[in-house]
Amino acid sequence: MTGSGEISDAGRERNERIRKLEALRELGINPYPYRFQRTHGVGEAIENEESLAAAETRIAIAGRVMSIRKHGHTSFGNLKDDTGSIQFYLRDDGVDELDFKVFKLIDVGDIIGLWGILFRTRTGELTIRVSKLVILSKSLRPLPEKFHGLQDKEIRYRQRYVDLIVNDEVTEVFRMRSKIIETARQFLISHGFIEVETPILQPMYGGALARPFVTHHNALGVDLYLRIADELYLKRLVVGGLERVFEFSKDFRNEGMDRSHNPEFTVMEIYVAYKDYKWMMEFTEEMIEKVVLDLHGTTKILFGDKTIDFSRPFKRITMIDAIKEYAGIDVDSLSDKKVTVRARDTMEQERIAVDKLKEYLKEKFVE
After folding, report:
1. CB 249 within 8 A of CB 234
2. Which of 17, 300, 323, 333 is the most exposed, fewest CB within 10 Å of its CB?
3. DSSP secondary-structure letter at 258?
């Protein structure tokens, strides 16, 4: 509703979709069935186009309707699943009467199942000629506007599911993250490491300097802390005789936040007996190089307008030299008092930045 009591465009769109939902039910159609038996994913159908099209094999695919274009007695549209996107073609005399009535009640954003055969249009686009269709999930809210997509960063990060639907590059980030973790995991296992799980709820937090989240255990009647690091428990396992351990863990730090710093985050830690920090640096270089090679087939990755080379050996620099090179501060030339003053100035700047962020969040999200 708008301030004047009128229904907004989004409200009218939702009401129209609800009307179509009821119309489907009046036709005896369940708009939210439990399952659909696919023969192919979209990506698989595209990959096997030659053999499927030659044999005129009838395939069944399912996905979200991303567009619909109607031209008299024919309609075109695009269907997308998590493996790709494909065009579909439907004639009113190519499906039975009930299916055509269902199609007229379908909107962009709905999830449907299609049966048909593959062919190429006169423009050369791979298309599935629909012989039967079924509604799998009626969407009551429209997708973001077609030509501008989802641009608002607040919405993108708060409604990840919408971001995934309309921005394909985000889906690729999720896939890449999964591959990175799996490749690193297999690398560690191949080098004799054991994957473990350590407690998230801890009677005494430690392993890092951070403010914890506090919760209460009702059965024991005690306060517990969400871990800020898994370090101490992993070290205890090494003490107990497990010489190589690692964990992908969720850690929680009750502190400041921004778009790239979340109070809840994933960390990987590894501990190994009888080695020093120099061995650990070499091992880390080897693991990173292996992950990048497995994922990209090369150690050189384009990031923005820069190329990063992950091949070994990496540049090594001390903390003192890094501060001098990148911050322009020669710590060795400063007295202890001057170092303390510089550190306090930096901490004060960070505090001011956090306060500004808090005010922004309060103004934007708290009534």
Report:
1. no
2. 333
3. B
Return left, alpha or beta for 100; rule: phi > 0 is left, psi -120 to 50 is alpha, else beta: alpha
- Report the distance separating Cα 151 and Cα 153, nearest Å: 6
Q: Give per-residue pLDDT as tens, 50-88.
A: 999 999 999 999 999 999 998 888 999 999 999 999 999
- Reported as type and span, the H/E element at residue 61 is strand 59-71
Distance of alpha carbon 38 from alpha carbon 82, whole angstroms: 13
Ramachandran region, residue 260 (left: φ > 0; alpha: ψ -120 to 50; beta: rest) = alpha
The answer to whether 100 touches 92, Cβ cutoff 8 Å, is yes
pLDDT digits (tens, 9 = 90+) for 260-297: 778 999 999 999 999 999 999 999 999 999 999 999 99
| CB-CB contact of 207 with 229 (8 Å) | yes
Domain ranges of the chain: 9-137, 153-322, 323-367
Looking at domain 9-137, its CATH architecture is: Beta Barrel (2.40)
Alpha carbons within 13 angstroms on the beta-carbon side of residue 141 total 5
Taking only the tens place, the pLDDT of each residue in 110-124 is 999 999 999 999 999
Out of 3.30.565.10, 3.30.930.10, 2.40.50.140, 3.40.718.10, the CATH code matching 153-322 is: 3.30.930.10
Query: Residue 170's pLDDT is what?
Result: 83
Pairing of strands 201-202, 222-226: antiparallel
| Contact partners, residue 298, CB within 8 Å, separation at least 6 | 292
Beta strands in 171-320 (DSSP E): 194-195, 201-202, 214-217, 222-226, 244-252, 264-272, 300-303, 306-309
Q: CA angle 339-322-301, nearest 5°?
A: 150
The model scores a pTM over 0.90: no
> Among 267, 253, 250, 248, which residue's Cα sits nearest to residue 214?
253
